[in-house]
Design goal:
The chain is an all-alpha fold. The protein has five helices and no strands. It has a domain of 73 residues. The radius of gyration is 27 Å and the shape is elongated.
């Protein structure tokens, strides 16, 4: 098994969704260190991995912020439309005059 295959399998065991949260297979650091050594660079695989994790966190934060902005933006036309429809439906909602509403919950 190659080092790349091993890193892939270990990341699969950890989970690809967790990759976006910074849970990256340690073997990625080793692979990057090997690459840097191969090209004669003095850069560190550990430093590279730290930067990747930070970038993933920033991307995740930006995605969350964007979704939150759309959901809670007062100018969101779709949300306003859905709210108006729900309010119209609730205005027409009348409880039936059934005796069930006068009984205690234990009596039902």
């Amino acid at each position: 098994m190659t080092d790349v295959s091993l890193a892939f399998d270990i990341q699969s065991d950890i989970g690809w969704n967790l990759l976006l949260e910074g849970w990256i297979a340690y073997e990625r650091e080793f692979l990057q260190s090997s690459h840097y050594a191969l090209i004669g660079s003095r850069k560190s695989g550990r430093r590279w991995l730290i930067q990747v994790i930070k970038k993933l966190w920033l991307v995740s934060w930006d995605m969350w912020e964007h979704r939150n902005g759309i959901l809670h933006d007062s100018d969101n036309a779709q949300l306003q439309s859905q709210t108006q429809k729900a309010n119209k439906k609730s205005d027409n909602f009348i409880l039936p005059r059934s005796g069930l509403y006068r009984l205690p919950l234990t009596g039902i």
